[in-house]
Specification:
The structure is a single chain. Helix 10 runs parallel beside helix 11. The radius of gyration is 17 Å and the shape is globular. By secondary structure, the protein is α/β, with parallel strands linked by helices. It has one domain: TIM Barrel (Alpha-Beta Barrel), CATH 3.20.20. It has an 8-stranded parallel β-barrel with strand order 1-2-3-4-5-6-7-8, surrounded by 6 helices. The longest helix is centred in the last third of the chain and has 18 residues. Bound molecules: 2-phosphoglycolic acid. 2-phosphoglycolic acid (PGA) binds next to strand 8.
């Protein structure tokens, strides 16, 4: 299956609506020819609507960092898929390790969110990954198996599903998983998807890597056969490193 090229920037809780819109305007003015790379900006909720106005006629896409599965109701502090769609959102990051480990989101919530996002016509970026203890105890494959099985329960249409493998110990730590670790984990994800669904789904579902991706390691990581792109935190907050990573992916796709 042909390698895909997706680069998503997860801004987490950074940038005001004005700062975000200025950042995107500067990015658009670089006039990058991103061709076959899908570039997604995931700002905080408060900046989505503003940024959509700036992104509209550009090749860039808008993503959110979370959502609730219900359409509306008494869910203080939450946001629905429709509300995100109304802000121009195409993608939603779900099950990020900070949601799982800081906010204790269980797999069954994440599963409800994946289904709600798909039902709402948006595309989920489902994050999975092991902690350092789990890796040390050789539980990584088992963790990925359960997070995929539970997160994707009753999902039958895979056309819009993206998986992001993000080892928890590599997120925001400066520590990147090495080539062998990423290659092995992405191979397991394809095997697990093949086991649950079909080889066709396993091969065509885009697999992103996330965890301290930077310009210096992007090329080496994108050379890994089963890496179709990146989910990037820290390095997506500044123009230069984010641009460099996108160009690396674009150039590698041409090789
Ligand atoms: P990082 O974050 O690139 O800062 O490690 C990645 C993520 O949380 O998605």
């Amino acid at each position: 299956m042909k390698k895909q090229g997706i680069v998503a920037g997860n801004w987490k809780m950074h940038k005001s609506p004005v700062e975000g819109a200025n950042f995107i305007t500067t990015f658009i003015n670089l006039m990058l020819k991103i061709e076959n790379v899908e570039v997604i900006f995931c700002p905080p909720f408060s900046a989505l609507f503003n940024i959509d106005g700036v992104l509209k006629d550009s090749p860039y896409k808008l993503g959110a960092q979370n959502c609730h599965w219900e359409k509306e109701g008494a869910f203080t502090g939450e946001i629905s898929v429709k509300m995100l769609a109304d802000c121009g959102v195409d993608y939603v990051i779900l099950g990020h390790s900070e949601r799982r480990h800081v906010f204790n989101e269980p797999d069954d919530w994440i599963n409800k969110k994946v289904k709600a996002v798909l039902a709402g016509g948006l595309k989920p970026i489902l994050c999975i990954g092991e902690t350092l203890d789990q890796r040390s105890n050789k539980e990584t494959k088992n963790i990925l198996f359960h997070q995929l099985k539970n997160g994707l329960m009753d999902v039958s249409d895979f056309a819009d599903v993206i998986i992001a493998y993000e080892p928890v110990w590599a997120i925001g730590t400066g520590e990147t998983a090495n080539k062998e670790q990423v290659s092995e984990a992405h191979g397991w994800v394809r095997d697990i998807l093949g086991e649950f669904y079909s080889q066709e789904i396993a091969q065509r579902t885009p697999l992103l890597y996330g965890g301290s991706v930077k310009p210096v390691n992007a090329e080496e990581l994108f050379e890994i056969q089963d890496v179709d792109g990146f989910l990037i935190g820290g390095a997506s907050l500044k123009i230069e490193p984010f641009k460099e990573i996108i160009l690396t992916v674009k150039n590698k796709l041409k090789d």
